[in-house]
Design goal:
The complex is a heterodimer of chains A (about 220) and B (about 190). Chain A has 1 helix and 15 strands. Chain A is mostly beta strands and about 220 residues long. Chain A has one domain: Jelly Rolls (Sandwich), CATH 2.60.120.200. In chain A, strands 1, 3, 4, 6, 11, 12, 13 and 15 form an 8-stranded antiparallel beta sheet that branches. The radius of gyration of chain A is 17 Å and the shape is globular. With about 190 residues, chain B is mostly beta strands. Chain B has a single domain, classed as Exo-inulinase, domain 1 (Jelly Rolls, Sandwich). In chain B, strands 1, 2, 3, 4, 5, 6, 7, 8, 9, 10, 11, 12 and 13 form a 13-stranded antiparallel beta sheet that branches. The termini of chain B are close together. The relative contact order of chain B is 0.30. Classes of the chains: A mainly beta (about 220), B mainly beta (about 190). At the A-B interface, strand 1 of A face strand 4 and strand 13 of B.
């Protein structure tokens, strides 16, 4: 008998909570699902391209040959916030490309679909100029209360599997299923959230963020 | 074994995926992704009726298919609400097999309609009452019967009025004395 996906994901009798999955494959980003904000171009990477080696998925990068410092781009759900700030899991396969001075990329879940990080909760990860190590990145709803907690892994330019999870008071970032980082400053979101991918230019050199898998669900 | 048709929808993101047909049959309705935890898509008709479906594309078998959905009806009575598989396009009692609530009564029913006549579907009551809460709705048709399960409990088995045509999924609401109002956050359909 054919098994349902539902039966494989849920115990019998469970009323499943909200979930979203995107494999970022196809001709273009599904803009019925995703909203964009900011200045970055959003393109699907071409497998085999030297720029996106052995990768694919969605890429956030400046759209021409002349990046402008201080600009940013966000891919999110247009403030359709269906995910709990306290009981959630997000899973993303991401690759950051660039040098740390060129900019920063963050991803996970957040309150607002624009570039706001100074106010409005965030529970994610950060790669780039925030820290030399891959780090957990969280904020609470109050402006300026930002927590960056470093892992033991240097920021690099290869794909990693990232898993952010919160059940109650603790937020933990798991990298490649092994390295764990727990948020320790108590700066955590309190309001409903949506998935996001984000890039910010520190200078006029290129950096980018690839993602070839995204899943978020309430627990 | 060759893989058969299988469809899954999470009802998340900015708006409803364009693979769905947003069908306003009469009156005025909306099909909006709701900004709220676990809310999925809201289908609301302040007058008339409508649904989401696959248009006239019917990939699911009349003798071997299953649907699973997590959905709510957002009032306790006085509206119409249907969820499942159908052949037809505009009726509030379409040919197919589905859960429904028809204006009044203490519980939902599991209905099926396999005739080409204009008679209404026949139904078997299930124990679940409309109370604005989400449930896991599970319907299956085989060559000999139909099984109706709610939240993991088999509620009804029917053999009368088996579907006579292949089908597509749908989620329907209709205004009566209150708005037709329901949310859905998951749907999966496949041929068995």
């Amino acid at each position: 008998m054919t098994k349902s996906i539902y039966d494989q994901l849920n115990a019998s009798g469970t009323v499943a909570k909200q979930r979203t999955v995107d494999t970022f494959s196809g001709d273009q980003i599904d803009f019925t699902q995703w909203s964009t904000s900011g200045d970055f171009g959003f393109n699907l990477a071409n497998y085999g391209s030297s720029e996106f080696y052995n990768g694919g998925g969605v890429i956030l990068k400046w759209y021409n040959a002349n990046p402008v410092a201080g600009r940013e781009g966000v891919l999110a759900y247009d403030n359709k916030r269906q995910f709990s700030p306290t009981n959630f899991v997000w899973i993303m396969n991401c690759k950051w490309t660039g040098t740390r001075t060129s900019g920063v990329s963050r991803f996970g879940i957040k309150r607002y679909s624009d570039g706001t990080f100074n106010g409005g909760g965030v529970a994610g990860a950060t790669l780039g100029s925030d820290n030399a190590k891959i780090s957990a990145y969280t904020t609470n709803e109050t402006g300026g209360q930002i927590s960056v907690v470093a892992s033991t892994i240097d920021v690099d330019n290869v794909y990693h599997n990232y898993k952010g999870a919160r059940s109650g008071s603790a937020y933990t970032l798991l990298i490649d299923g092994v390295t764990s980082v727990t948020e320790t400053n108590g700066y955590l979101p309190v309001n409903a959230s949506q998935p996001f991918l984000y890039c910010y230019n520190n200078d006029t050199t290129h950096h980018s963020l690839n993602c070839n898998y995204l899943e978020v669900y309430n627990t | 074994m060759a893989y058969k048709q299988h469809f899954i929808e999470w009802f998340s993101g900015k708006q409803l995926s364009s693979i769905w047909n947003k069908r306003t049959i009469a009156g005025s309705g909306t099909f909006d992704m709701e900004d709220g935890i676990d809310k999925g898509l809201k289908v609301k008709f302040t007058s008339g009726r409508g649904c989401i479906d696959f248009g006239a594309k019917r990939p699911f078998s009349k003798t071997g298919s299953r649907f699973i959905a997590v959905a709510s009806m957002n009032s306790t009575s006085s509206q119409y609400w249907l969820l499942g598989m159908k052949y037809g396009e505009t009726s509030y009692s379409p040919d197919g097999y589905y859960f429904n609530y028809m204006d009044s009564g203490s519980t939902f029913t599991f209905a099926s309609y396999g005739s080409s006549s204009t008679s209404t579907a026949t139904a078997t009551s299930v124990s679940t009452s409309p109370a604005g809460t989400f449930h896991a709705w599970d319907g299956e048709v085989t060559s000999s019967n139909m099984l109706f399960t709610v939240d993991g409990t088999l509620e009804a088995t029917r053999t009368a009025n088996m579907p006579q045509n292949n089908m597509h999924p749908f989620f329907f609401t209709q205004y009566d004395s209150v708005s037709g109002n329901g949310n859905i956050r998951y749907m999966e359909c496949y041929n068995t």
